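Progress note, project year one: complex with erythose-4-phosphate.
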Amino acid sequence: MKFFVDTADTAEIKELAATGLLDGVTTNPSLVAKSGRQFKEVIAEICSITDGDVSAEVAATDYDTMIKEARELVKIANNVVIKLPLTLDGLKACKTLTGDGHKTNVTLCFSANQALLAAKAGATYISPFIGRLDDIHLDGLELIREIRVIYDNYDFDTQILAASIRTANHVRDCAIIGADVATVPPATLKGLVKHPLTDKGLEAFLADWAKTGQSIL
Ligand code: E4P
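Model obtained:
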């Protein structure tokens, strides 16, 4: 499973990219607003930090303007992926942009039928939002399961990009189900490495090593 980080904070992206564990970045208008920066400028900087796919979302809701915005965004860098909302105009734009050889990420997916449509429109990625479904007492992970079955039934190439991830358990369960990618907030992504028994075990090993009085170097 690939790991994308879900943020427009370039300091966080640099830190994670330096680990060698980062495969890409997703942004959305809310994350760009939170960064307080100019959209195109921040996307350009993110694309210079990572060679992985970087999702940049259109702001328009009508087909013609989405296409114009997408054509502007793809000029920023080769690794820009156009993020489009799951609407009829968004799917139509997805079909056009895919036909033109661009990568697309269809976002705000909350049902298996929406994911089926996105795959038929040729989306590179579909972004089902787990956390937002859980927030309203539905089952976000069940949606990932359904989409996995449907995409495998028809050999769709569209990759499942599990989004709106809130917990380490979401990441684990997405990996078990077989999501292709998980886009994870920086703190949750960094938190995956933590286990109290790892900390406790390391502390004991270091204490015993000190008792030997040896040094490797
Ligand atoms: C995905 O591409 C979205 O940017 C993101 O995962 C949404 O997460 P949220 O529901 O925590 O805002």
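Residues 30 and 183 are 15 Å apart (CA to CA).
The chain is about 50% helix and 15% strand.
No further modelling is planned for this target in the current period.
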